[in-house]
Design goal:
binds (4S)-2,6-dioxohexahydropyrimidine-4-carboxylic acid; DHOase/Allantoinase_Hydrolase; 34% helix; globular; 12 helices; binds zinc ion; alpha/beta
């Protein structure tokens, strides 16, 4: 048994739910979950109950997070296509790391389906900070074309289909400024999981086929996919397993299991230890221009196995889709700017 030191990890895609849905998560519980999972810098998404689409709402989130967060947090600004005049006010804010666009239906009220509105957004976000898209299938084709037309830096969130891996590979081959992320749940589950896990396996994008999953692992190995993002999307059990007739909420928590799942991939011979650092630190830092965190590191034993429990997590929703799985490398200590925080 031997401990190794890694840099404090970066998760560029989390939903901490504050303000608006603090029965699921808040900045304190969500940032505790981040530290438990080895993340010292996280980027929070704007699809709150009242979406973060004005400078004022953004400032409210920043001040709430300052009061309650135990790790560093940055934010992605949101857009419904009607708030482009807010972009000037937020794009140079050092706490803003990107603009998030939802092109498919999911949790929240920010969907842009109208092509004219979408084009207006790409035109208006005149910034080197990436535009992040939730864009499945055909929507990905559209957003790649708009990013090219307006010369915007694009980050494609949580790719999940083989065809999307191929689209990104092609765009990169033509030197387009595009990056892509993948979520652990798409790497470890296929849609076959839904019959057993029911609502707990419902998320957006939905789980794919074995062929999709194989393409995601191949995309990770050949550099088509740049980073791992947890898409930590806490919902309480009643929302995932509603009474008969109810629609389960989309999304799964992931902050506390992502690193262990990546060391499982190392253990299984799919990726190397160096890949883990590249996918959870080096690339996220470079793509989103994350500030340095001096004297910040985590300690773990990458060969030590542990079983994901049923409960007892830091995340307020207190469940995991990975319960019962054997993972590797549980975080033993976290030091943030010289202070031991876990
Ligand atoms: O499954 C998901 N849950 N996908 C998303 O895009 C949003 C997220 C959420 O906020 O619950
Ligand atoms: Zn998300």
């Amino acid at each position: 048994m031997s401990l190794i030191k890694l840099p404090g990890l970066i998760d560029v895609h989390v939903h901490l739910r504050e303000p608006g849905a603090t029965h699921k998560e808040d900045f304190y519980t969500g940032s505790r979950a981040a530290l438990a999972g080895g993340f010292t810098y996280i980027l929070d998404m704007p699809n709150n109950l009242i979406p973060t689409i004005t400078a004022e709402l953004l400032e409210e989130k920043i001040s709430l997070s300052k009061e309650k967060s135990v790790c560093d947090i940055g934010f992605h600004f949101g857009t419904n296509g009607e708030n482009t005049e807010e972009f000037e006010k937020v794009k140079n804010n050092p706490k803003v790391f990107g603009l998030k666009i939802y092109c498919n239906h999911t949790t929240g009220e920010m969907l842009i389906e109208n092509l004219e509105l979408l084009e207006k957004v790409f035109s208006a976000w005149d910034s080197p900070k990436p535009i992040l898209v939730h864009a499945e299938g055909e929507q990905l084709v559209t957003t790649l074309a708009l990013a090219l037309k307006y010369e915007r830096v694009l980050h494609v969130c949580h790719i999940s289909q083989k065809s999307e891996v191929e689209l990104i590979r092609k765009a990169k081959a033509s030197s387009q400024k595009v990056s892509a992320g993948v979520c652990p749940h798409h790497l470890y589950f296929t849609k076959d999981a839904v019959s057993k896990m029911k609502g707990y396996a419902m998320m957006k994008p939905p789980l794919g086929t074995q062929e999709d999953q194989d393409a995601l692992w191949a995309g990770l190995s050949d550099g088509t996919i740049d980073l791992i993002e947890s898409d930590h999307a806490p919902h309480v059990k009643l929302e995932k397993n509603p009474p008969a007739g109810g629609q389960p909420a989309f999304g799964v928590p992931g902050l506390e299991t992502t690193l262990g799942l990546m060391f499982k991939a190392v253990h299984d011979g799919r990726i190397s230890k160096e890949d883990v650092v590249r996918l959870l630190y080096t690339n996220p830092k470079k793509i989103f221009n994350i500030p340095d965190q001096p004297d910040t590191y985590i300690e773990l034993d990458p060969d030590l196995a542990y079983v994901v429990p049923q409960k007892g997590f830091e995340t307020k929703c207190d469940w995991s889709p990975f319960s019962g799985m054997t993972l590797y490398g549980k975080v033993q200590a976290v030091v943030l700017r010289g202070k031991k925080v876990l």
